[in-house]
Amino acid sequence: MRKADLVNQISEKTGIPKVDVLVTLETMFKEVKDTLIGGENIYIRGFGSFITKKRAAKIGRNIKKNIAVHIPEHFIPAFKPAKEFVAEVKKLVATKPDSGPGEDTDQ
Questions:
Q1: What is the rounded average pLDDT for all residues in the chain?
Q2: In angstroms, rounded to a whole number, what is the distance separating the alpha carbons of residues 9 and 22?
Q3: pLDDT reading at 74 higher than 50
Q4: What is the spatial distance between Cα 96 and Cα 107, in angstroms, rounded to a whole number?
Q5: Which of 48, 60, 66, 91 would staple 81 via disulfide (CB 3.0–4.6 Å)?
């Protein structure tokens, strides 16, 4: 699903114009980014948490030049789903018939 599909679905289900849904969604994304950049985490009960994870410093390798490269300690954004959310997805996936990896059923 793409952002446009999400906007269409929300608009159809709520009756809110697509433009308003898009503005709201973009504002939400911006607030999530700004909050994480500010060092704060976001906790949404029943859905999950947007958090920053600390990556330790390590030695990487530039394979073109075959030299070791120091990668400094840094933070990355991450999403951790809530237990209820994970349980619902597991239940749905368990009831779906197995179509195998890489098979596209929307032809």
A1: 89
A2: 11
A3: yes
A4: 18
A5: 48
